[in-house]
Amino acid sequence: MSKFLATATAFLAAVNSVSAACTNPTQRKPWTDLTTSEKAEFINSTLCLMDPAQAPSKTNYAGSKSRWDELQVAHIAQVQFIHTVGSFLPWHRWFMTVHENLLRTECGYTGPIPYWNEQVDQAAGPLTASTIWGTDPATSFGTGATDENGCVTDGPFTNLRYNINTELERGEDKCLQYDLKQNQFDQLSQDIVNACNALDDYVDFNNCLGGAPHTSGHYAIGGTMDDVSLSPADPMFFMHHTNLDRLWWVWQSKNESRLTDMGGKNVATSTFLVAAQPKSLPESAFAPYFGDNSNVTTLDHIMWMAGTAENITIGEVMDIKSDAICVEYL
């Protein structure tokens, strides 16, 4: 057993409960609703989280150097067990909160957490005119421009390099890449989301939201976001998935029973995701710790964060006003 797997297994076995009361939920707002100073602070805090000098790794998993690296490890290590499964939405809800907490505790971020309201931008015009783009690198994600290799050429993340690969090893440095696709952006329409909202059952809704509203958000940006394992290396990942979490919350808010509605398989069986799972962390490394006692996802399912945060259950994150999440969407 590798050192990484041995340490990871110990963390998998540890489950904690978040106990602080949710009395002052943090706000999550569309990117367009942040002030200029809030946008600048968010981008600076994101750059801080990537910097080993400012936010050094506390786990050193897979050779991670920064807290940003650790977030990548948490996603890469279990890609087969957090996509096209029942835990897809709750795991990513907890992941968004872990990301937020790191921005605040490691880098002093004090503002609201932004999301990219893709549905509004899709209705307003082409992807290249989206509100996330701009010419000021201090307050935007750049213009989306790339060189012949797809590496971004402007904006705050032109110097971003990541090198933890899909087998949880340090490989060659990779740049942040975009490959903008209008036909994928068109799949992020409110009409498609409305079709998901019309579904009553969580399993059906999860499958629907995990379809075009999820995958097309990745493919519309393309490049780094195209990679099912490595996509959290792109800060856009968190803007996209925070919006997805908002859409899930909109659906949940329509019926109180949806705060406990959970189901679906807990291990992805598609050839694509099986192949993407690191060989050092097979199903046998995870399944004993899921807490479901079957192959169906339950509220007792344990979500692992690779040492970046507590391992908690799905039941603890079903309500965004829970102690674990404690946010509100505006």
Count of spatially separate domains: 1
Helical residues, percent: 25-40%
The amount of beta strand, in percent, is: 5-15%
SSE string:
HEHHHEHEEHHHHHHHEEE
| Spatial shape | globular
Helix count equals: 12
DSSP summary, beta strand count: 7
- Average per-residue pLDDT, rounded, comes to 95
Question: CA-to-CA gap between the ends?
Answer: 46 Å
What is the SS-derived class?
Answer: mainly alpha
What's the CATH topology name?
Answer: di-copper center containing domain from catechol oxidase
Please give a quick description of this structure.
With 330 residues, the protein is mostly helical.
Give a structural overview.
This protein is mostly helical and 330 residues long. It has one domain (3-329): di-copper center containing domain from catechol oxidase. It contains 12 helices and 7 strands. A 3-stranded parallel β-sheet has the order 2-1-7. It has a two-stranded antiparallel ribbon with strand order 3-4. A hairpin with an 8-residue loop joins strand 5 and strand 6. The termini are far apart. The mean pLDDT is 95. GO terms for molecular function: metal ion binding; oxidoreductase activity. Residues 1-20 form the signal peptide. Pfam families: Tyrosinase. Keywords: Copper, Metal-binding, Signal.
